[in-house]
Design goal:
By secondary structure, this protein is mostly helical. The protein has a domain at 48-153. The chain is 86% helix and 0% strand. It has helices spanning 2-110, 122-133, 143-152. Helix 1 packs antiparallel against helix 2 (122-133). InterPro entries: LSU.
């Protein structure tokens, strides 16, 4: 019986060595694979951090652009309101000047040429020059108005 036991014991030692070599090979393969996975994980985390940083930078630029857009819209609204007010003021001023010019024309029609030096034409000249200043000059067809305009402009 002893030789049989010895033979079985030798066989177990050989199979243990083979199993151990296989385990070492498998362990080395697993270590190598683990290192590869760790390297890949590191790269992936670095890419993720870069993407997060880029996203934050883009988000910041977007926020700045939105704030600038809000400021520009606000300024544009203020300028539009100011332009409307100025247009209304100019329109009212033009209407007033046109009324004054109409009154002056009616005075001229009612007066004779011989009495021209006696009339006060300073307001009439102011009206004509004011209209000229606002680029709303109305062409006058009577001789006196054209003469005054040509003389003073």
């Amino acid at each position: 019986m002893a030789p049989t036991i010895m033979a079985i014991g030798v066989k177990n030692v050989k199979s243990n060595k083979l199993d151990q070599e296989r385990q070492e090979t498998t362990a080395l393969q697993l270590k190598k694979r683990n290192e590869e996975l760790e390297t890949e994980l590191k790269r992936s985390k670095e890419r993720e951090e870069q993407m997060i940083q880029e996203l934050q930078n883009t988000w910041q630029r977007l926020r700045v652009a939105e704030e600038a857009e809000e400021r520009l819209c606000s300024q544009l609204g203020e300028l539009e309101a100011e332009a409307v007010n100025e247009a209304r003021d100019y329109h009212a001023h033009i209407i007033s000047l046109m009324n004054q010019l109409s009154q002056a024309q009616n005075l001229l029609k009612g007066s004779s040429i011989s009495s021209l030096p006696l009339l006060n034409y300073s307001s009439f000249l102011v009206i004509i020059l004011d209209l000229y200043k606002y680029n709303f000059f109305l062409v006058q067809y009577n001789f006196f108005s054209v003469y005054i305009v040509q003389y003073w402009i």
